Amino acid sequence: MKNKKIIIYIVAAVLVLGLGIFVGIKISKSVEDKENDGNIKLADNSVNDADTAVKSDNNTSNSSNTNKTDADANGIDDNTEVKASDIGQPIMPGNKNTDETISAGDNDSSSLGNDGDSKSDTSKNSGSEDNTGSKNEDNSGKSSDAGSTGTTSGDNSGIGNNNTGSVNDNDGNSSKNDDSAVNGNDKSETGKVDTGSDNNSNDTGSGDSDNAKDINNNTGNNDNDSNNNTDIGSGNNAGNSGSGNSGTGNSDAGNSETGSGNSDSGNSDDGTINKPQEVIIAKPVSVINTGNLTEKGNGYEGTKGTGKYNYGEALQKSLLFYELQRSGKLPEKVRCNWRGDSGLSDGKDNGLDLTGGWYDAGDNVKFNLPMSYTSSMLGWSIIEDAKAYEESGQLSYALGNIKWANDYFIKCHPEDEVYYYQVGDGNQDHSYWGAAETVEYRMSRPSYKVTKSSPGSAVCGETAASLAICSIVYKNIDKSYSDLCLKHAKSLYKFARDTKSDAGYTAANGFYNSWSGFYDELAWSGAWLYCATGDETYITNAEADYKNAGHDYDWAMCWDDVHIGAAVMLAKITEKDTYKNDVEQHLDWWSKVSSNHITYSPKGLAWLDSWGSLRYATTTSFIALSYVESGLCPSSKEKAYTDFAESQANYALGSSGRSYVVGFGENAPKNPHHRTAQGSYCDNMNEPNPARHTLYGALVGGPDANDGYNDVVSDYNKNEVACDYNAGFTGLLAKMYKKYHGQTLKDFGAVEKVNTDEFYVQGGINVDGTDFIEIKALICNVSAWPARGGEKLEYRYYVDLSEVYKAGGSASDIAVTTNYMAAGKSAGLKAWDEDNHIYYLSVDFSDSVIYPGGQSQYKKEIQVRLRNPNGTWDNSNDPSFKGMTKGGDSLLTGSALYENGQLIFGSEPAKGKNAGKTVVSGGGSSSGNGNNSGSGNSGSGSGNNGSGSGNNSGTGNGSSTVEVIGTAKNESVSVSVEYDNTSSSSSSISGRVNIVNNSDGTIALKDLKILFYFTNEDGKQLSFDCYHTCINGASGSYTQLNGCSGTFSETKGKNADTVCEITYSDTNTLGVGDTLACNFAIHHTDWS
Known about the structure:
Strand content: 15-25%
Distance between the termini: 6 Å
Largest sheet: 7 strands, antiparallel
Structural class: alpha+beta
Helix content: 10-25%
Number of helices: 18
CATH class of the domain at 84-195 and 307-745: Mainly Alpha
Radius of gyration: 33 Å
Shape: elongated
């Protein structure tokens, strides 16, 4: 097709844009009223006890004090056996060792009052996944979204030198709601919508969707019809005269293209021995080193339990979850085969190495406020129940988990008054539904910091607590590392307390706002720093800060509000009634000791809020048992608190009739809201279904107040997971194990069998004739073990040229031309077994990235023609022709796909003489590139032969993909059109129309028409496909649509002879600010 002219026409307005592009839509609108509804720098991270300033020139955190080798995944030497007795214990008034007391030195003991930052906002933000809107006063949601990271094998679960963490998208706003009726309290969580990119709105459909038409920018050819329309398509006509079949190269003129290509070439014996070929077939294989681990394990070991559930296995799997959340460079040995390295460029935007840590939830952001809360809780649990971890065989994994996080925090703290608290843009991240390993192909990951002039006391205080706790845990295991953690803890605490402000903590807004303020974190970290140092200044500060913190008894210990944890620690340290009374008032409300108590579901869940209901109940249960064990709890309340805690643990594990822990117990969740575990390759949370991976140990958000729960990936309210969800839950399981024991699985890991082709090729015969074949092949990457971009991919199509040689020709006679190349370039024809005349077409993708991250990202289409200009061709004897059909889309198992030279899909014949020798180099383009002058075997173009702006400079190795975008708007709507490519030879036009409702009312889809103008040219048959259409709500919602159709009719105009009318039968409406996305294709019988 030489000049396809395309117009999108809006009758509502005549719009002539500066680009000379007219875009329009005819709208009959039914309008409905819508309610508004320190400064010192240091060359390394070595510890100097006399110097508490934190200094670092490069922030690599790779000193021997910070990280061990990659094989040291547990945070301890492989040959070192760590016992419970090795775990450090907090300094208390009764056990203070003055020789080990470290002076606070850097503490600010001046003003302990409120520095003007009164706690005006007491609402709680529980972070709702993919919340992209503004803060809502009644918004308290927390759906967390966690992209997984890899894990370690055997005893390996900790950190290596290349520790890199990442965070998940717990991104809702948890806030107080004065009208909360369910619990009678004043808090509730209502999250924002996680669009999760399940709409695939940026991608074209399957099959030929990558074959977009050549949209010729005829900007100089203004149409002077009644509407003064300017063509969107049909400029740059220049190059089309140089495309393939009309050029001076190997013309196909006179060759019939209607036959199957299987003409009998008389393959009688010409003296060549055509021996039977041995065929080598690719088989799926894991690329991750997991040793002998499996997800089923190899039987059980350990002490049999006496409780209602196997708390040993539950604890084992809960700890594994944190390995699945890891970001960065993973250890060499891991306990998972579907997690890989990710986030390896984190921090580079600021010249730092900020790799490491955990992804927050089901997303791929690293939020340090919930992450540091999580590691604090896990460290607290290790201190209290080290023996339980040791007896269950999980101590090394627990140690590795907290070290992985705290190593990352050290990297985030390059100097005294600088702390990087987030990596990744929450809104941008949540617009993409893909595995953690693919994120950097799709987007940059900015890092955000707080400084003295733009501080963040809450996140710095919480991180100080985590590092102080880690320093206690590692005190007797690795003294230098313990000292390093303490040094950073003291510096961060001083920074937080000196500034007493969260003014600079802004990037997490809408995801993890610090609703409770910062005094609770200051009290919490001060208590733990006292326990790490014995310095009385810290406890004095902690008590003062506790007075300024909120004391809401009817909420829960969580990532935002840690005042109850501070109260427990202050009660243990001081034994003062003030703190004991606060703890007991809180636990009385949760455990029904008080007549005014929390709501209980019919099946026994203490239900606080819709966002993460189970994390609140299980964390409070950990607090209850810790307090009971402290010796401070009145004997009259011990049983009530204990019964409450055990009932909530059992509810999470299955007492309601189902488990809420992925991979554990009866009727466990299978589809958590988690990008990496779901395993999508096409940026769609609903494809594939069900999830491809089991996110072992993850505690989902949980049911509603009536025990209602749906195991669907889109329900981020109830079915998302998060690091902070498992934090208190893991501690609770350790206490349940301590009392009831339970066995663990031997040789267990999240190691799955790979039963599918992660890379494959599909396609068929594009067109063939008596002397040629043109192959259409889609190179597909749906990898998930782990997800990854293909490295140095090569596609091969093996041919048997016996008939060519019999006719007196040779392989060097074959002409190789490319028609359409979405990626890759032809590397020509190469020998494979010259004695038997076996050769192969090679297409090299070394310069392209095909990755599982969207429709147009995971598959790339190529169209390549092999032609014998001497007229003899037979497909039937070609090894790769097996299974190919005309216009087909089947798996091309006779072809072969290689990665780094290794066969990963398809089959290859036995290798023979001179394998790999190039016989025919490269391959010219048989079609123009938009701006085209053709080269190679394709002839030469004529240059500027149209009225468009085409500058002719074509390429020989295939057509480049050119995207043309037209935009227009009026008072009612704005429209943009995106085309996938501008190849003039493809027999389809494909792209996406985006329509934004700018009006103040809704638009009924059934009243909307899109008129798409183009040239049919020869009156041949047309067909319309809508690959995907949806509404992307202004609030972040997503609605998939049905009932989109297109009909064709003739029209008159200088630049169009045909119009496609696209309409909807769907009853949905386009709300104010919403965007309608329509991925479409118009197919023609032959536009070649």
